[in-house]
């Protein structure tokens, strides 16, 4: 089962360059959260701070009773077992075949027998659709396969938290759709807490339960998907609707003159909120809320056309009939 990550007052700088400061929020247990932001706002640096690969200047990262930046080396080693991390390029060892790459954490962190390791590795390879690729070297497989191999390796220790840094970068839209489905299915199956860094707005709109935006050296907003996708906050609205007009510029932040030259930015209506991606086994997502619930509680109207799927079904009004007979995972 997943655990929550509570971040309090986190600040990170490199020399005089402040990457972000005063970052405080809670990543809910067992839910899928996604972190977005313009290039260079420190999303990868943030993930590395969560697992203790980088230390913040100040602040806390509470995970299961421990505060990651304050752990001693041996405690950090144990803490890292809770995490499965999928790095941007899969971070596979080039000289090891796919099987050995995936087996690596088991050989490093456990005393399991080779036959037990084999069972686990083959099971995870099947989960990510890599059966048959055991003997291949990373240089002999496609980018998408490398990502899936990295994901299989992140899964072998049955982590409570999965961090994925741009798992969809460089993937074609169909493979991205498969990978997103895999994340939903894994979350349903394992109940782990997911934090995914992505640039893909399509992914951000359908995959997570919660969304966050890093910009201007801080966390602008983090919260339920419906809150973020209906927000009229200038940066949030601009980013999640992929618009040019707004405070985010080509070089991250527009200067005052550039913002002034755009004149008053028309208050653009956020795009319709799509229904969430559902598990492929027909169950409900573990932490799925009724579509429109957050909006109703906060007396916010959904953007027109929201919650209608590509079969024309309306997940807000027809929820009871659509989820009839679906179960939540135990
Ligand atoms: N080890 C390091 N030493 C010094 N500066 C670093 C280090 N790691 C990252 N940075 C700097 O921190 C900033 C944020 O980098 P990071 O890779 O986290 O951004 P990002 O938001 O993930 O970007 P992208 O979306 O392009 O992947 C960059 O300016 C980068 O140069």
Automatic annotation (TrEMBL):
Residues 290-300 have a biased composition (Basic and acidic residues). Residues 5-241 form the ABC transporter domain. Residues 266-313 are annotated as: Disordered. Keywords: ATP-binding, Nucleotide-binding, Transport. The keyword Nucleotide-binding applies. Pfam families: ABC_tran. The keyword Transport applies. This is ABC transporter domain-containing protein. It comes from Actinomadura fulvescens.
């Amino acid at each position: 089962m997943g655990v929550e990550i509570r971040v309090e007052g986190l600040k990170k700088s490199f020399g005089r360059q402040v990457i972000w400061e005063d970052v405080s929020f809670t990543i809910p247990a067992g839910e899928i959260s996604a972190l977005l932001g313009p290039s260079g706002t420190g999303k990868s640096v943030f993930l590395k701070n969560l697992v203790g690969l980088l230390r913040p200047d100040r602040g806390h990262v509470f995970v299961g009773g421990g505060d990651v930046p304050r752990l001693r080396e041996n405690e950090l080693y144990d803490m890292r077992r809770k995490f499965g991390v999928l790095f941007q390029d899969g971070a596979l060892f080039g000289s090891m075949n796919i099987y050995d790459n995936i087996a690596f954490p088991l050989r490093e962190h456990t005393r399991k027998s080779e036959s037990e390791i084999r069972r686990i590795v083959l099971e995870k390879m099947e989960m990510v659709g890599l059966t048959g690729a055991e003997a291949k070297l990373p240089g002999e497989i496609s980018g998408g396969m490398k990502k899936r191999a990295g994901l299989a390796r992140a899964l072998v220790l049955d982590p409570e938290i999965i961090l994925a840094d741009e798992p969809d970068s460089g993937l074609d839209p169909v493979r991205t759709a498969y990978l997103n489905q895999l994340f939903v299915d894994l979350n349903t199956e394992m109940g782990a807490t997911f934090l995914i860094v992505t640039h893909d707005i399509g992914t951000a709109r359908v995959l997570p339960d919660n969304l966050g935006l890093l910009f201007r050296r801080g966390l602008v907003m983090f919260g339920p998907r419906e809150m973020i996708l209906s927000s009229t906050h200038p940066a949030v609205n601009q980013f999640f609707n992929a618009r040019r007009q707004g405070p985010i510029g080509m070089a991250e932040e527009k200067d005052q003159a550039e913002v002034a030259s755009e004149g008053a930015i028309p208050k653009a209506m956020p795009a319709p909120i799509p229904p969430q991606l559902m598990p492929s086994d027909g169950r409900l997502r573990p932490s799925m809320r009724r579509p429109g619930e957050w909006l109703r509680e906060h007396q916010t109207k959904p953007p027109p056309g929201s919650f209608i799927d590509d079969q024309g079904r309306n997940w807000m009004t027809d929820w009871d009939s659509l989820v009839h007979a679906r179960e939540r995972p135990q």
